[in-house]
Design brief:
With 359 residues, the chain is an all-alpha fold. It has helices at residues 3-31, 37-65, 72-97, 101-124, 130-148, 154-157, 159-180, 190-214, 223-228, 230-255, 257-260, 266-277, 284-316, 325-348. The two termini are 18 Å apart.
Length: 359
């Protein structure tokens, strides 16, 4: 496969993934009218998890399913963050907000790459480049404009909506933590990490849902309610849950995470367009906020490329011939500095979001 075909395939796969994810938020508006987000999540990932396990078995054989000696507890923790934390909270928050919940939930997806810098800072002590902090702030300003519809005071005046938006923000953080977890399993393929953590996270989601149902927190869905959401369940499980994740995994492998992460901007764009077509038209200030968040992601991406290019140029520059001990020490210090800058730029780039896996 030549480089042009590889690039084109990567673009198409990343588009497939992000469009499928953008469409799921408006789709959930109708789904949540018939079933609670907790039961729906368990149903969705029972199907998607089984598909991932079958795919893992086909790709890696029995070895792919072998977990002896692995850090199962850690994998369970990350799986719980992704498939109970994110999935429960994002759709519960969307349900609480109402008709504009899809817009608010989708814009949170575009902030995930920027959140990745903050999570790396906390978990791995990797300090983001200085201008990345500016772009992170810019991203969250755009998000606040979307969720508040330009009336920032409403976030304080309406605690219920503010609380729902906080759930969405925490849900996005859960998914970033889940995604970062892949780096703790360097010998696992992206498919193995996704499949194993999906199943382990599903176990947590099932227990939590059973407790909520038993306590009467939400009504037990009727057979009629389940039957009415089967088309949405099929889309969310097979298209957004399975095909979208595989598309993201392989698309990022072809393009690299620095290119792939730019496609996260497609998620809110898709959600905004579909919402507008179904009668929920975003306000002008919300469009401005979404554009601000999208621009922050693009600007930060260009900034990281510039850092990486400078680091590569510095590393490629031949060291001067040492004529004295002092010159030798100076050259060594220069080389060490370039290596550090390169490592910093590389480590600062967040892992691809959406699949919970490495590219």
């Amino acid at each position: 496969m030549n480089s042009q075909n590889t690039y084109t395939r990567g673009v198409l796969l990343c588009l497939l993934a992000t469009v499928s994810w953008g469409a799921m938020f408006p789709l959930m508006d109708s789904t949540l009218q018939h079933i609670d987000p907790f039961t729906f999540t368990v149903m969705r990932y029972t199907i998607a998890g089984a598909m991932f396990l079958v795919f893992l078995r086909m790709r890696e054989g029995r070895e792919g399913l072998r977990l002896k000696g692995e850090r199962i507890g850690l994998a369970w923790l990350f799986g719980t963050a992704g498939f109970a934390g994110f999935q429960f909270l994002v759709f519960f928050g969307q349900d609480l907000i109402g008709e504009r919940g899809a817009l608010n939930a989708s814009i949170m997806m575009a902030t995930m790459p920027m959140m990745g810098f903050l999570v790396n800072w906390v978990l791995k002590k990797v300090v983001p480049p200085k201008f990345s902090l500016v772009f992170i702030a810019m991203s969250f300003v755009g998000t606040i404009l979307v969720v508040s519809n330009g009336d920032i005071g409403s976030l304080i005046a309406d605690p219920k909506t503010a609380g729902a938006d906080a759930l969405l923000l925490f849900a996005a953080l859960c998914w970033v933590v889940y995604t970062s977890g892949a780096s703790y399993f360097p010998t696992w393929s992206p498919i193995k990490y996704t499949a194993i953590t999906t199943v382990l996270g599903l176990a947590s989601a099932t227990v939590i849902t059973a407790i909520i149902l038993a306590a009467g927190g939400v009504p037990v869905p009727t057979a009629g309610a389940v039957g009415s959401i089967l088309p949405q369940l099929a889309y969310m499980s097979v298209i957004a849950g399975f095909v979208g994740v595989l598309g993201w995994n392989f698309g990022n492998r072809y393009l690299g995470p620095l290119n792939g992460v730019l496609f996260m901007d497609v998620v809110p764009i898709t959600a905004f367009v579909i919402s507008a077509l179904t009668g929920v038209v975003p306000a002008g200030v919300q469009i401005i906020g979404a554009a601000l968040t999208a621009a922050a992601l693009v600007f930060n991406n260009l900034y990281l490329r510039r850092i990486a290019a400078k680091a590569a140029a510095a590393a490629a520059t031949p060291a001067p011939v040492a004529v004295a001990a002092g010159a030798t020490a100076s050259g060594a210090a220069s080389g060490g500095s370039a290596g550090t800058a390169s490592g910093s730029a590389s480590a600062s780039a967040p892992a691809p979001v959406g699949s919970g896996s490495r590219s």
